[in-house]
Specification:
With about 325 residues, this protein is mostly beta strands. About 15% of the residues lie in helices and about 40% in strands. The chain has two domains: about 160 residues, no CATH class; about 120 residues, no CATH class. A six-stranded antiparallel β-sheet has the order 1-2-3-4-8-7. It is elongated. The two termini are about 45 Å apart.
Length: about 325
């Protein structure tokens, strides 16, 4: 929808100098995506957008034409709360767009509603999304827990997006939070390293990351992250849509289910599960000793074993984050 919005705005023929930046809320009938855009009306100029599919509880945050942006992980912060998301970089209507995702029930989004300021961090780069006080009501409408007057019309705030004369603001908030499946102890055979896949350690300005996958690719099966000055780990795993919202890990006889949040994955079309964990948990301490960890998705077990010499990457990560 964003690309269509940009192309439609370009038809107006106005230059950015003839308008001013504002926030506009676009809602569509029939369950289409809801967009809150920081734009110059009737031009292709965009600074930022918030997008959601009605009832999903997931929000996509995008910033446009920001120097230094890449497809790495993005730290999302508001007030004292923070989370992390896999960043996605794309060309959209001639503009470069960096997109990250978060859940509406996460403390970061709650802080954003209060402060109306959201910061995206990536390495040394920081980009801030601010919603001024006069547009605070639009942000609240975007996050509304229920549709506004579903039996009556709602005026579209930008005529370029109007599909019909009757528009309904579809709520972004999720209807319910799934309950994790009961805990089940799995078997723990020692796995064999897989050719082409290994553990990769990366230390950066904001912390450290440990990822299992193919080097220099977006094929990542499991990743662990920590931020400097913030206790605990963040776990991320890309799974198929409909998978239980839990990251289930096993290593050397230890196992744990970490309740997770699900966010849309632009890479796989499924969802990215994110969870917090204590690095001192027995499953991670066992991982440090045996050099492998396994992930369960339903009844499917995927084992991630370090190749000879790569155990140092695992130890370096926990030395940095543990």
């Amino acid at each position: 929808m964003t690309a269509w919005l940009l192309m439609a705005a370009a038809l107006a023929g106005q230059s950015p100098e003839q308008a001013r930046w504002t926030w506009t809320l676009y809602g569509a009938d029939g369950g289409d995506r809801v967009v809150l855009a920081n734009e110059i009306p009737d031009t292709p100029s965009l600074r930022a957008t918030l997008e959601c599919d009605p009832g999903s509880g997931a929000v996509l945050v995008s910033v446009f034409d920001r120097e230094g942006a890449d497809a790495g992980y993005v730290s999302i912060r508001s007030g004292q709360a923070s989370t992390a998301s896999q960043g996605e970089l794309a060309e959209d209507g001639g503009a470069t767009r960096l997109t990250a995702s978060m859940r509406m029930e996460h403390p970061v989004f709650a802080a954003f509603l209060e402060t109306r300021a959201l910061a995206l961090h990536q390495g040394e780069n920081r980009w801030t999304v601010r919603v001024g006080a006069r547009h605070g009501a639009l942000l609240n409408d975007f996050a509304a827990p229920a549709a506004a007057d579903p039996g009556g019309p709602m005026r579209a705030l930008n005529p370029l997006i109007t599909v019909s004369s009757v528009l309904i603001l579809a709520a972004c908030a999720s209807v319910e939070t799934p309950t994790p499946e009961p805990w089940v102890r799995p078997e723990s055979p020692a796995p064999t390293p897989i050719a082409g896949f290994d553990w990769h350690f990366n230390r950066h300005a904001d912390g450290a990351a440990l990822a299992y996958g193919v080097a220099e690719s977006d094929d990542v099966r499991l990743s662990l992250h920590c931020e400097t000055g913030t206790p605990g780990l963040m776990l991320y795993k890309d799974v198929e849509e409909g998978a239980a919202p839990v990251i289930h890990l096993e290593s050397g006889g230890e196992t744990e289910r970490f309740p997770a949040e699900a966010q849309p994955s632009m890479l796989s079309g499924g969802v990215i599960l994110s969870a917090t964990a204590d690095p001192s948990h027995p499953v991670f301490q066992r991982f440090r000793r045996v050099g492998w960890i396994a992930s369960w998705v339903g009844d499917r077990r995927e084992a991630y074993a370090a190749h000879a010499g790569s155990e140092a990457a695992v130890e370096s990560f926990f030395n940095a984050c543990g």
